[in-house]
From TrEMBL:
<feature type="transmembrane region" description="Helical">
    <location>
        <begin position="206"/>
        <end position="226"/>
    </location>
</feature>
<dbReference type="InterPro" id="IPR011701">
    <property type="entry name" value="MFS"/>
</dbReference>
<feature type="region of interest" description="Disordered">
    <location>
        <begin position="1"/>
        <end position="23"/>
    </location>
</feature>
<keyword id="KW-1133">Transmembrane helix</keyword>
<protein>
    <submittedName>
        <fullName>MFS transporter</fullName>
    </submittedName>
</protein>
<feature type="transmembrane region" description="Helical">
    <location>
        <begin position="392"/>
        <end position="415"/>
    </location>
</feature>
<feature type="transmembrane region" description="Helical">
    <location>
        <begin position="267"/>
        <end position="288"/>
    </location>
</feature>
<feature type="domain" description="Major facilitator superfamily (MFS) profile">
    <location>
        <begin position="50"/>
        <end position="450"/>
    </location>
</feature>
<keyword id="KW-0472">Membrane</keyword>
<feature type="transmembrane region" description="Helical">
    <location>
        <begin position="118"/>
        <end position="135"/>
    </location>
</feature>
<dbReference type="GO" id="GO:0022857">
    <property type="term" value="F:transmembrane transporter activity"/>
</dbReference>
<dbReference type="InterPro" id="IPR020846">
    <property type="entry name" value="MFS_dom"/>
</dbReference>
<dbReference type="InterPro" id="IPR036259">
    <property type="entry name" value="MFS_trans_sf"/>
</dbReference>
<dbReference type="GO" id="GO:0005886">
    <property type="term" value="C:plasma membrane"/>
</dbReference>
<feature type="transmembrane region" description="Helical">
    <location>
        <begin position="329"/>
        <end position="348"/>
    </location>
</feature>
<feature type="transmembrane region" description="Helical">
    <location>
        <begin position="181"/>
        <end position="200"/>
    </location>
</feature>
<feature type="transmembrane region" description="Helical">
    <location>
        <begin position="141"/>
        <end position="160"/>
    </location>
</feature>
Amino acid sequence: MTNLPGDVPAAAVTPPSPQPTAAVPGIVTENVAESTPPTETKVGARYIWLMVLAQFGVFVAFITPIAISLAIRVGQLEPDHQEYLGYITGAGALVVVIVGPIAGILSDRTRTRIGRRRPWLIGGTVLGVISLIVMASAPNIWLLGAGWILAQMGWGQALANLQISTADRLPESQRGEVAGLVGFATQIAPVFGVVIAGSLTSQNLLLFLVPGAVGVILVGLFVLLVHEDDSRGRVFDTVLGVKAVFAKYLYNPKSYPDFSINWLGRFLFYFGLTLNTTFTAFFFAQKLGITVEAVAGVIALVGGAGILATTLGAIGGGFLSDRLRQRRLFVLAAGIIFGAGAITMALAPDVTFLVVGSLLGSVGIGAFAAVDQALLLDVLPERETDAGRFMGITGFATSIPQAVAPFIAPVFLAIGAVSSTDKNYTLLYIIAAACTVAGGLVVLRIKSVR
């Protein structure tokens, strides 16, 4: 994959009759009644593969716009302002910084017949489809940006609740394995999406909705076929008002030092990754001397060549980290490998070196996506009652870089540029490499996990 912006139910327990006690119906009180330790019962193949397919579907629908579709629309609406792509993606990520943790907290406390997570999966998918229609039909750059914000809120929540589901259900012995499979699937998803988009560049509606249909179908299968217990009987004894909700955005890092270190390492890696991937289409177009519309096929071709590399990084890293019970060194290796790939691409004199750099980056992204996700689940605090909250806080480590990096990137791109159309991608990619290596080094300070 090129460096693109790439069931077995829980123990059956009959719930007591619903006893709503919250001031805001169903979702605004803090659960203090459930304190049973997480089960170590392994999940079955059906849950694993439906999870993998669902996350693959979300990424096809959600990441294809970053990989190519948004760049095409920006080129159509504002052909002389490539930097608008960074502003749009940054604004969308900034909104997620605000709403992500709230949604995680409310997901933890949602009480419905179909469980806590599935309502959010359904709602997020519906909003995601609406966002794709808005982006496809936007007559100006402002509505295009609004559509991307809706996409971050919709598809982002669908993805977040799939990931929270893994925190709810996966025992330690399966976290690396499942994260590896998911990491592989979500890294090849943009390649799949770009292949679809490459044949639809002249039809805006299909350019967005065909990848979106993949997301709807695969998330729908997960919702329909993965059982989740009725959550209406969850007992709450304290009201969680607006002030208390926002207070849950914060926690004492000293109380959970390893979680905090993992957060910082993830932040640094995704900051570098965002610098590297946001302008991929424009970077390839400048390197190869072709138009942005024409670059879709090239990106798809290079991405296809990276599938094996992504498999090696994601599945290999995930499975080996389970077998060797070693997470930190794999995360460091992922940061170094990705950094080497970014520098190789930045200095590439021809297509051959672009492909080599892309393959290295694919190994690094795949390994990091798998092993760091497993490491996160190892150090996640208060898993039984507040998994959504802390997964939401973890989301800051990706959403803040996605919000900030695109706004900073144009500064680096302008350094040394001799004209408004000339961009310093070499400097941008070198800085991206330094960030990902730093992220791997930080994780070495975690003490509770090898």
